User: Which sequence fits this backbone?
């Protein structure tokens, strides 16, 4: 069968779950994960371990995911120097995946020789083991900001040697052109164990909060934003807590004097950051202010984390319109005019509480440590499909209608023999996946494909795709959201009815991008989350849920629905 040839060929060329050749004491124990991170010594994690660190990336991108992964595989944390003494990581046993965590820009620039060695090592060890580099920031943008070209070179070297993980869709789009082995979005989880009560009752003094990373390079922008806020809230006393690293107390004090000169009733008070202090400050404040440079390549790709933690705490945020924040715009005030957001909140206290409450429900689904941990499992090739599956067994994933988006770890399938110079792994009419036998795929993903079928044929198409899925396998569909497109169009029909970028969120949803000049790229039907879910259910899928879209323009223009093939009885 053609399928057997395809499976054999794919298994030989893919590099999703290779194992090291190192021996381990317990032959029944699965290969583990190694996080190379900013820690002082190597250690194998224990579920009872706890970490206190002022580095958000270490807590959110290493520690929380590691504790989740520990439920399935051994997990080691090792410092940067560890690979010099044990380059094959043989002393750690059977290593399945290595994750290179975030190191600060200052550390990278001060120790360029060590990070050159790290890039060399990643390229060499990648021949034996899957290597993932977690990039929370665009180092190339940082290099431009600080006039340090080394940062871009280092980022490019990691991109050539490793699979990339990032925290936002906007950063994924930025890095995709240089990501030789692919880039995956794994968002930051929230870290507060209990959600706060939605609250907005402002007393005589308005209590504001700013928290985050600060330093001399960030002061001009932050100071200008706080001055604008101070001017906008004249007429009432304001106390703002400025929560950041203790080393910047003097810098904050200088900034407080500048702001007091603009508005004497505006008090800016420094407090040193800690997890406990941050939680208490969010509980004590009325509004959290989250200014971010929307025009800066560095700032524009920042994560949702500070906004998510604010919503999780039950407090209202006014935040700049970077892409990650815009995805949560129904639950906060997202606009570059933060003063207007504060004024709106003071005038609409009931709506503020409603937004926070709705946001907490959304955040609990999208950013929970469990959900993010499962996403790490998927990206690292550790997905727990079932207990019956042997550890390390091949996981077969199909990327249907791939076009020019050739994804690593997938069998890329398309009817077109080439698009934008890139060829699929399998050429097939998606109406009939005859190359694939029944129940052979663990996952079927179709990104912006379903809208290209006629409505009268789409149910049979979904049933054909479901035929190929294994019981319990996942079907992932992303497509434009008709509800969002209609709302966007009706806001300004005249301006949003053109064929160019002005119609990207409206007319393109209805009909497709006319720039393709290709009938295959025409949209033949559109869906709402409710109508697509009903169609998937009719095709025999169960446990259907809406998740955050991860490709194209993402939320709110696009949507992502995930369903499962019902497991067989007996």
Assistant:
């Amino acid at each position: 069968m053609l399928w057997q040839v395809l499976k054999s060929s794919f298994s030989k060329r893919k590099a999703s779950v290779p194992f090291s050749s190192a021996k381990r004491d317990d032959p029944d124990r699965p290969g583990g994960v190694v996080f190379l991170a900013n820690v002082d010594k190597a250690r194998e994690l224990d579920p009872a371990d706890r970490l206190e660190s002022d580095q958000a990336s270490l807590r959110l991108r290493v520690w929380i995911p590691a504790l989740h992964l520990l439920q399935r595989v051994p997990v080691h944390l090792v410092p940067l120097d560890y690979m010099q003494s044990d380059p094959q990581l043989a002393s750690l046993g059977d290593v399945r995946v290595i994750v290179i965590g975030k190191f600060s820009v200052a550390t990278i620039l001060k120790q360029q020789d060590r990070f050159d060695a790290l890039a060399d090592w990643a390229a060499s060890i990648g021949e034996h083991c899957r290597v993932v580099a977690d990039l929370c920031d665009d180092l190339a943008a940082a290099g431009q900001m600080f006039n340090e070209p080394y940062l871009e070179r280092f980022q490019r070297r990691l991109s050539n040697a490793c699979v990339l993980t990032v925290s936002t869709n906007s950063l994924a789009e930025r890095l995709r052109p240089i990501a030789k082995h692919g880039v995956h979005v794994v968002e930051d989880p929230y870290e507060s164990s209990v959600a706060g009560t939605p609250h907005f009752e402002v007393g005589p003094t308005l209590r504001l909060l700013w928290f985050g990373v600060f330093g001399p390079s960030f002061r001009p922008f932050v100071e200008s934003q706080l001055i604008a806020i101070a001017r906008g809230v004249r007429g009432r006393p304001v106390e703002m807590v400025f929560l950041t690293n203790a080393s910047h107390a003097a810098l904050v004090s200088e900034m407080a004097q500048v702001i007091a000169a603009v508005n004497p009733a505006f008090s800016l008070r420094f407090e040193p950051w800690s997890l406990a202090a941050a939680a208490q400050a969010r509980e004590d404040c009325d509004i959290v202010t989250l200014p971010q440079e929307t025009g800066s390549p560095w700032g524009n790709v920042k994560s949702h984390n500070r906004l998510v933690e604010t919503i999780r705490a039950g407090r209202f945020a006014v935040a700049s319109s970077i892409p990650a924040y815009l995805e949560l715009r129904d639950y906060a005030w997202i606009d570059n005019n933060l003063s207007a957001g504060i004024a709106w909140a003071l005038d609409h206290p009931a709506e503020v509480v409603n937004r926070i409450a709705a946001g907490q429900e959304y955040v609990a689904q999208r950013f929970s440590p469990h959900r993010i941990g499962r996403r790490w499992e998927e990206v690292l090739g550790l997905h727990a499909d079932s207990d019956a599956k042997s550890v390390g067994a091949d996981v077969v994933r199909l990327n249907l209608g791939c076009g020019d988006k050739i994804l690593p770890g997938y069998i890329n399938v398309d009817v077109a023999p080439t698009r934008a110079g890139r060829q699929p792994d399998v050429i097939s009419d998606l109406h009939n996946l005859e190359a694939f036998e029944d129940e052979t795929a663990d996952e079927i993903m179709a990104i912006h494909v379903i809208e290209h079928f006629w409505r009268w044929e789409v149910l049979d198409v979904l049933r054909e795709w479901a035929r190929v899925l294994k019981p319990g396998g996942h079907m992932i569909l992303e497509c434009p959201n008709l509800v969002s497109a209609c709302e966007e169009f009706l806001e300004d029909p005249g301006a949003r009815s053109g064929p160019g970028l002005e119609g990207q969120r409206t007319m393109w949803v209805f009909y497709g991008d006319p720039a393709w000049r290709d009938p295959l790229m025409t949209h033949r039907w559109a869906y709402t989350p409710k109508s697509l879910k009903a169609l998937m259910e009719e095709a025999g899928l169960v446990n259907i849920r809406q998740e955050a879209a991860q490709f194209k323009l993402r939320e709110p223009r696009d949507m992502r629905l995930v369903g499962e093939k019902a497991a067989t009885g007996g």
The chain has three domains: 10-185, 206-361, 395-565. The first helix runs from residue 2 to 13. The two ends are 29 Å apart (CA to CA). The longest strand covers residues 469-480.
